[in-house]
Amino acid sequence: MKRRADQPEQPNRQDIEEVAGNGLLHRRALLGKGMAAGTLLGSTLGPLATGAAAEPLTEPQWGLEIGEDTPPYQSPSKFSQKVARTLSNPKFEPRSSIARTPHHLLEGSLTPNGLHFTINHTGIPQIDPGRHKLLIHGLVKRPLVFTLDALLRYPLHSRPAFVECGGNSAPLFSPKPIQSDLQALHGLSSCAEWTGVKLSILLDECGVDSSAKWFVAEGGDAPHLMRSVPISKGMDDAMIALYQNGEPLMPGNGFPMRLLLPGWEGNLNIKFLRRIKLVTDPAMTFWESQVYTEPMPKGKSYNFTFINEVKSFITRPSPGVDLKQPGLYELSGIAYSGKGKITKVMVSADGGKSWAEAALQGPIQSKAFTRFRLPWRWNGGPAILQSRAWDDQGAFQPTRAAFVAERGQLDREPPVTAFRNHHCNVITSWAVSSSGKVSHTYA
Amino acid sequence: MRKVLALLALAVASPALAETPHLGQPVSAADMKAWDIDISRDGKWLPPGDGTAAQGAPNVARRIVGEAGPVGF
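Structure tokens for the assembled complex are given below, as produced in the milestone run.
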């Protein structure tokens, strides 16, 4: 597509190259810059002032009066109240309380602190940070106790990291696609910038014995939840996190301190962390020998599945975020890998027959959410939207069929909130009907 | 000679350690006993007591109520 220097740019919808079936456009088509041809400005894409004229503009009331007082800590607009977590246990019955992130109502690559997913088994403890202590002991030369004040004098380190429950996406083990929204299907994964002290510094100060191969981390709330972690992760990128997106940890996310194991199963990232014991072997706690295991088709189970494998899903459109009329849309979604950085996300609008490469929003960071986007011209016909991510370790998302062949699926549809199996990272498919309604499907 | 080499190795390895704050407080085995509640996989650190898994199961069922029933959270 060549253009002479004296030729004015003409809005021409045919200029926009369709790079995959059913209306997927080139990932650079919406950026306006850095395009090979240099002619594909945003204005060439959209309907050019179509439809009825805008109503006459008038001054609304808020432009004529004094607004409300300024609170010490801001809350979202009252018109954004739907941007909220869903609660599994709103009456606080004696069971776990699970709150899921509304990915379909969010953008960017960080989850606001009030919307970070949480799972708490016996409520949220009210821990006095001045009295909380962290003990490191076991196979060390010097068992030591650290206060929060002490930790705040250590060199701090910040990094984004997603935290994902091993049970996130578990509804996709159902033999039939559960008709629920993105929040119910994939809402147990969130991403924040965490700031804290590298665990390796504290372990070095304690003097780790060479016989120590694992450590058991324990929370200070009533369940005293314990998980066993290989010492190599502790010396690598493990962190005692004290801040979440710049402010002290949220109570539901482990205030005043939690273990952060970037990229690893959420349950291992012990909240309200109070104890680390260095040991020779894993403790085989309830959480690692019963709860967070993966039943396999032939009756055996995986356990110690540490890494959350590469995953992606389209957040807009998605069930409940339907399409109004045919035309140009931007597909938007999230990709992440517990092994490293996202290198590529491919998107399909025809159920996987053809694929187009999505634009990745930088900076792309290891073990953190990466936002992907791709322009799509919906022609008003049926479509099946899918995304598939690759990471820098060469891993990529399996199709659901390939995943089920290896890991199996449930015999019948479970409650959408149940975790009957764990660590599902299959491609998610959204069916778009000709009315624009979006539903969950398998393709 | 071996001792000298070992000391040299320590001297090379320690500068990085020396630069960290070292603000942990020492604690005796007796003083950490109340928190030392994990059990080794061979049961070695179990507190005194007796019973079988079958006898304990009803207690677990009574005390732990999962999101998805007795199995699964």
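Confidence is low (pLDDT under 50) at residues 1-11, 33-46 of chain A. The helical segments of chain A are 148-151, 182-186, 199-206, 231-235, 286-291, 400-407. Further analysis is deferred to the final report.
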